[in-house]
Amino acid sequence: MHHHILNVVEYSRVLSEVLSRVKPTDEEQKRILSVAERVVSAIRRRGGRFVDVVVAGSAARGTNLRGSSDVDVFLLYPRDVPREEMEREALEIGKSVSERYELRYAEHPYVTAFVDGVEVDVVPAYSIQPGEPIISATDRTPLHQRYVSQRLAEEQKDEVRLLKAFLKGIGVYGAEIRTEGFSGYLCELLIIHYGSFLGVLRAASRWRPPVFIDLEGRAAARFEDPLVVVDPVDPRRNVAAPVSLNSLAVFVAAAGEFLESPSLRFFFPDDAPLNPQHLKDIMLQRKTTYLFVLSSYPPGVSPDIVWGEIKRFSKYIRRRMEEYGYEVMNSAAWTDEKEHVALLVELAGGHTAFVVKRRGPPVFDRENSRRFLERHRDAFFGPYVEGGRWYVDVPRAVPSPEVAVYRTVVEAVQNRSVGRHVAGELSKGFEVVRGRAILPFYVRNRSFARWFSSFVVRRPPWLKR
């Protein structure tokens, strides 16, 4: 691997261009931090049972990307304050920060206040020391803040930004169920461990799962995940637990490719949807059958829950279609997290045979043979002997793929094989759409168009021709 020396100039040209696009401007950064300071001093003036107010999040650590202006303000409470009381007070304080706010729910209910175009999350947590047992998941975040600000050098902050932008460009940035990728905190730990963006890429290009990284050498549990990065503030936790094998593989592949030929396309992929005519041509070329189930997004339910339900349901549909005798090439799920939910299954070949072959007992097993022949006395094709066994060709129970998908959905809603929020919407109504009939929806819905285009094209935009 001699390319590292060869491309030094090339690397720095690409990386400085990337930074000029993804690093927040000085004024953006100043605005975010001054909003954070104003909010903190307002909260301190107001007072309460909290013992400290801590600003956390990537903006506070100087590792945020341009345009992602969110700040987390943590109210730290002593352990003896009951949870209900802590949550109630934190909500009141959160609402007092700004006229414009939303209530959101994670481990605790919390308020997102909108102040001068900055989203400020006001979150309650218990004040704990590193190594003490965690009471609620949010308790770790202030400790993460402390750890990263102590360990991350000033010149490494931009390295974190490069890593985030790279992961975002290849589609694996974010720990939500939608992405199953790398969190911002994980990016920071990787830079602390390997020193720089290129350092992380060089290491990653040679990873083979299971990959195990323990910055402080204090792992206190056994982990089964493909990538393990032990949380330095909580040695029982794997920060990389959300990273799926697939996301890990995409990162490893892209890291190797980038080192071979650095380019902006890794960071800023061209993800414009195909024009409808071109999409139609590709669908015809593939000679497969695309089937879509379209339904509504369950109002007020968090995207993480909905993505979890539709990803599991997509696997269920695939399994059922295979049981019906179809060859499934691909299955997938999509939602815009607002109005629509779509499930997709792609079947090999336009039409499957009208009959399926059923295997019977060996001819030499007289008892079972007699039963088999009795049962298939009126068979349309057969019974016949092949390789010492009886066979019969019987008409397929479900003739068309649409009917099979339709039945699968109805049945899943009835026997609760689909998560309850999505099931609720499906029971109100859904539509099964075949092949090119999806085009009107495709044209109306840009987010769907982008997703379906990349699904049809299959090839990641960073992969060089």
Write the layout of secondary structure elements.
Elements: H1 3-6, H2 8-22, H3 26-46, E1 52-56, H4 58-61, E2 70-77, H5 83-96, E3 101-105, E4 109-115, E5 118-126, H6 140-151, H7 157-169, H8 184-194, H9 197-204, E6 211-213, E7 227-231, E8 234-238, H10 245-260, H11 276-286, E9 289-296, H12 303-323, E10 328-335, E11 340-347, E12 355-362, H13 366-375, E13 381-386, E14 389-395, H14 401-414, H15 420-428, E15 431-434, H16 439-444, H17 446-457
Parallel strand pairs: 2-5, 6-7
Antiparallel strand pairs: 1-2, 3-4, 4-5, 7-8, 9-11, 9-15, 10-11, 12-14, 13-14
Model description:
This protein is an alpha+beta fold and 465 residues long. The chain folds into four domains: 26-136, 2-Layer Sandwich (Beta Polymerase, domain 2); 152-266, Poly(a)-polymerase, middle domain (Orthogonal Bundle); 276-351 and 399-457, Poly(A) polymerase predicted RNA binding domain (Alpha-Beta Plaits, 2-Layer Sandwich); 355-395, 2-Layer Sandwich (Alpha-Beta Plaits), CATH 3.30.70.1550. 43% of the residues lie in helices and 21% in strands. It is built from 17 helices and 15 strands. The chain has helices spanning 3-6, 8-22, 26-46, 58-61, 83-96, 140-151, 157-169, 184-194, 197-204, 245-260, 276-286, 303-323, 366-375, 401-414, 420-428, 439-444, 446-457; strands at residues 52-56, 70-77, 101-105, 109-115, 118-126, 211-213, 227-231, 234-238, 289-296, 328-335, 340-347, 355-362, 381-386, 389-395, 431-434. The strands form four sheets. Strands 1-2-5-4-3 form a five-stranded mixed sheet, with helices on both faces. Strands 10-11-9-15 form a four-stranded antiparallel sheet, with helices on one face. A hairpin with a 2-residue loop joins strand 7 (227-231) and strand 8. Helix 2 (8-22) crosses helix 7, helix 8 (184-194) packs across helix 9 and helix 9 (197-204) packs across helix 10. The two termini are 21 Å apart. The relative contact order is 0.09. The mean pLDDT is 93.
